[in-house]
Amino acid sequence: MFEEKGILFILSGPSGVGKGTVRQRLFEQETHLKYSVSATTREKRAGEQEGIDYFYTTKEQFEAMIQNGELLEHAQYVENYYGTPRAYVEEQLEKGNDVFLEIEVQGALQVKENFPEGVFIFLFPPSLEELKNRIIGRGTESDELVRNRLKEAEKEISMMSEYDYVVVNDDVDQAVQKIKAVITSEHCKRERIEAEYKKILEG
Ligand code: 5GP
To answer: Which of 17, 60, 67, 138 could make an SS bond with 13 (beta carbons 3.0 to 4.6 A apart)?
Structure first.
């Protein structure tokens, strides 16, 4: 109906929360989404493919990409670089395709600065109940352990304030359903379609 531009969705969250698994399951169901393949300096793992899982680069090649402004964001994670090639994202959005990034938190915050119109989804660790138990423990843990857990939880929770949506990943299928609902809702947002309606009225 409309010449709608695509929407950039960013899935992020603390390490170990299951972003990769949720993203894979989502892509089995949502064939219209375009996955932005990241560049990385990390070694290719068994079963991974160049251009499908990542673009594997040397440190020098990656640093040249940074210098040339070819990355929408980049971050260092466990001694390796990871980054999102800008050109693909911009081309696909321009064509009207939705683009999906699955990246760690530092990178997501950079995208937020450069691309505030993106939709930021925070994947929260497995269950709120588990988080509570992890903090309180069984009452046998040392004060220090409880304090450390509290600090970790505070960090996780404070990160979510930059995001538009929070999805708890206690069940992969439910998390995927919620992300699909976010995608649908975003396409119905008044702000995104109002201008097009006005064009119709103006003839
Ligand atoms: P892995 O090495 O396990 O594939 O990924 C490690 C972490 O890097 C994951 O949290 C993943 O989401 C994140 N990651 C993957 N690609 C990118 C990227 O382009 N930018 C950023 N900032 N993080 C990424």
So the answer is: 17
